[in-house]
């Protein structure tokens, strides 16, 4: 059993590490662990066999209580491999951006101008791709190696999909926006990828450092691995997901998919205008040539004008394409739409009012790097000026006591008064009170478990008999 002093020791040693990647990994590992807790045993066994085909894990259970493997360690594989040449194509699959998205005032998901990037190069399309690989494997039509890769991507992408800034088109998901966090310079995306979760872990009440008891303990404890965030998971389970918890009622609906909406072809076409400059020029030409207005209203022609030019250039994907990413059983777009909407939440928008106007940073962003080519949450971590984002409070206090901090004389003077401080009661404090981050982690875990069960339950049942 882990005791409180040990947890504190772990916590402070981690806080002193400059390894920002490790913190960013925490969100993925938590979601993977919550998913694992929710997986029926035969499904988890099959998942483990797919991940470790040579071990025959489900054939040889050493300890009936222990899970045959853990999902947390593979949950960040997709980050680790994405700079390899053969996986470079996956870089844009960690997120999706809608054109003209401008939270907190105007959330577009998508707006009339559609999505940035190609139709297959985004997280929602990629989720459809990997689930279909897994479904083919379940039908016996794919090799286990394909299923293994698809599974590792799936675990990561369901996690990313529950980080609202990975769905946000403004200022590169917040990477282009500098903010202050506990007096240090950070960027807004990084606050969401790592710092808020780190704070949630740090502020978990002490009673969660001991194992949960009863049926809840039996469900949860064997899936914990002695990680720094175990107490946080216990809390999310105990106060959030178990009977009578905050999310007990709504979590039943987290796997629901809306009835399919009428497709693009049948949408009213009277107010339609081409979305792309090339399409507009072509429409103009067609009209000038006297082409029948009725023909212009033909959905097929509209789709051609809208889609082919922008898509062929790799610049944007028209609105409406998202309908292809969902079906009745799995609907990443519908799920993501609700997560994205939090960016504009009326009471507590994830984009706080008080950050600079949208687009203010686009110029400097695109000078430094292209808009599409560079993966989001890797770049900033390599930037030394932003490494101060992970705050070691003790170190800071010591520095200030010794007169070593930047401003020296007065520790109370905000060191970056020009930046919006987010480690504040108005922002981080309210998010914590409302369990905004914990809800997203719980939702990601429950959905990941639901998707895996949906795909693999039949096969897992066969294997067991
Ligand atoms: C796993 O099982 C297969 C057949 O069930 C067998 O051929 C293989 O040798 C086993 N692998 C190990 C590592 O035990
Ligand atoms: C779909 O997923 C498979 C397996 O992960 C991958 O090999 C393939 O390149 C993917 N295709 C697209 C278009 O993303
Ligand atoms: C831990 O303490 C909190 C109060 O701080 C309480 O609400 C919660 O139920 C306790 N959890 C457990 C598992 O006892
Ligand atoms: C472009 O339009 C043609 C003709 O309608 C169609 O066959 C093709 O699939 C379209 N391209 C894309 C990328 O959808």
Identify every distinct bound molecule in the structure, by name, code or SMILES: 2-acetamido-2-deoxy-beta-D-glucopyranose
* Number of domain modules: 3
Structural class: mainly alpha
Categorize the overall geometry: globular
Present the secondary structure layout.
Elements: H1 4-16, H2 20-38, H3 41-51, H4 77-80, E1 115-116, H5 123-138, H6 144-160, E2 178-181, E3 184-187, H7 188-202, H8 214-220, H9 230-241, H10 277-288, H11 293-296, H12 299-313, E4 316-317, H13 332-341, H14 362-368, H15 376-379, H16 393-401, H17 425-433, H18 436-464
Antiparallel strand pairs: 1-4, 2-3
The structure holds 2-acetamido-2-deoxy-beta-D-glucopyranose (4 copies).
Q: Can you walk through the features of this model?
A:
- With about 475 residues, the chain is mainly alpha-helical.
- It has three domains: about 5-260 and about 325-345 and about 430-460, Orthogonal Bundle (P1 Nuclease), CATH 1.10.575; about 275-315, no CATH class; about 355-420, no CATH class.
- The protein is built from 18 helices and four strands.
- The chain has helices at about 5-15, 20-40, 40-50, 75-80, 125-140, 145-160, 190-200, 215-220, 230-240, 275-290, 295, 300-315, 330-340, 360-370, 375-380, 395-400, 425-435, 435-465, and strands at about 115, 180, 185, 315.
- A two-stranded antiparallel sheet has the order 1-4. It has a two-stranded antiparallel ribbon with strand order 2-3.
- Strand 2 and strand 3 form a beta hairpin.
- Helix 5 (about 125-140) packs parallel to helix 18 (about 435-465).
- Residues about 1-25, about 265-270 and about 360-410 have low confidence and may be disordered.
- The chain binds 2-acetamido-2-deoxy-beta-D-glucopyranose (NAG) (4 copies).
- One 2-acetamido-2-deoxy-beta-D-glucopyranose binds next to loops.
